[in-house]
Amino acid sequence: MHVMVIGAAGMIGRKLVERLAAEPGSLGREIASLTLADVVEPPLPPAFSSLATTLAIDLSTEGSAERLISSRPDVIIHLAAIVSGEAEADFDKGYLVNLDGTRALFEAIRREGERERYLPRVLFASSIAVFGQPFPEKIGDEFFTTPLTSYGTQKAICELLLADYTRRGFFDGIGIRLPTICIRPGKPNKAASGFFSNILREPLVGQEAILPVDEKVRHWFASPRSAVGFFIHAARMDTGVIGPRRNLTMPGLSALVGEEIEALARIAGQKAVSLIRREPDPVIQTIVSGWATDFDARRARELGFTAESNFDEIIRIHIEDELGGRV
Amino acid sequence: MHVMVIGAAGMIGRKLVERLAAEPGSLGREIASLTLADVVEPPLPPAFSSLATTLAIDLSTEGSAERLISSRPDVIIHLAAIVSGEAEADFDKGYLVNLDGTRALFEAIRREGERERYLPRVLFASSIAVFGQPFPEKIGDEFFTTPLTSYGTQKAICELLLADYTRRGFFDGIGIRLPTICIRPGKPNKAASGFFSNILREPLVGQEAILPVDEKVRHWFASPRSAVGFFIHAARMDTGVIGPRRNLTMPGLSALVGEEIEALARIAGQKAVSLIRREPDPVIQTIVSGWATDFDARRARELGFTAESNFDEIIRIHIEDELGGRV
Fold it and tell me: ipTM, 2 decimals?
């Protein structure tokens, strides 16, 4: 089987490739070749050094999608995008990369299939940003997509394309609406959602973190391990049972910031909690107040997708995967 | 005020222009110029001979949208599309005309506004084809758009673009999801939905019509007069009260084929009804069984959009507008 990961240098891409290296049978069939693409050349994992190709390629430039698809991968995992803040700041770039790049990929697959029969599994990283306020208490699987950002609009449009291309038989697609990933590894960043991870990650290694919102803020989370698991499951599942509604809100954990902090106290003690400094930030508070807080992700759960059920698990996963198992 | 109608040679476009000619004050401000565009040159209504321009132009060809928008219309009514059957039969053409043509129009408006402040009202003809089965008993205003046709996908994508361009302040848009128009004037055509009109229109003039489905088939209707009324209302309404959810399911009438026939009997007698010949057609039955049957179009009604409440009204409107008031 030939697996292609587009956006392989990103956080989920790298973790996904690590997982494939650690568990070579996880996709159900042997990986005979692996193509890792991103705008910067993605790292080549040692376990795959003999069968992997790494490519620096920008999907939104003319001919790139055709070049990628000419190798006819069996599974295409499309994680490449510019993030919400950038898509809002740069209207042209957001539409070019997030919409036109994805559409070029879908079109390249269709054209390849016109040449010779070809029906790859296509997994598309979508987002809960496809939804916009006001929300019901829990967002169900049939709630409409009325995004309030250009990023969410681009993701919602790609979801519609994915469903139509799948229905027409051009590929076998699944759209994966990711929760906010927590604990996001790495350095603190300036994303408005950064603090959800920062207030756990930094105190776990004895560093201070800033909490810009109230503890009663509720949000929707999954661990990086769950995010990888969604794509692995989607790559190997029987898509015959999904039907034409191919875009799925992934399961996650609806939790308060206060619950994050309680879990931190249970696992790392009050000393860790005392490293969280409260610095209310009205700008971040306003942004966050527009985000979804809870979902009833019944369809995805019924289709076998799983995520964490409490923040203790999310923290333990971080400790296992990022801190060598020790706090 | 400069009003532009794109798709002005189509049924709704022509009726809209006739209505503007008959009621020059209907948009609330005097029409100083009128641009009528379509792929074939639209008819020039005598009442507007001095202030109207007619243009044969294909929105999906390079530069056409810029050419249209360079005249900076205040109200742009975008009715141009290829229909459902054609969009399904010709994948490339459907996306080119219905998606890329509309996006080119929206982009041309944005670019014009970058040059010099410009915020036109943009009315986009969408469709209940943005919805796909299975449906709830009544489709509410927050039901998701999971189209099962490429046409519905193209309309749903344009709705997302319209909402985002409006939110970003590039124009002031409203998406108008039209019910099935009945009684559609003109000749019987081969559209799968044609019989809903045919079984009334032909018997009203003493001709035979074919009914390919059961009388218990339910569907969602509005008269051509209502369709024109939706655009007139949307052109002049205060958009400040809509909020960012700019795509509205228009009000309509949920009715059984049997109710159409009962209304025909009341208005034109059993002799007219006896001209309906039952010829069950499994192909048409299957297509029609996938269509929405009923909506709770609360938001549009609250915003002042109105439609018929029974089939007697729909037939009477046809008699007034198409048959000179007499059966």
Answer: 0.97
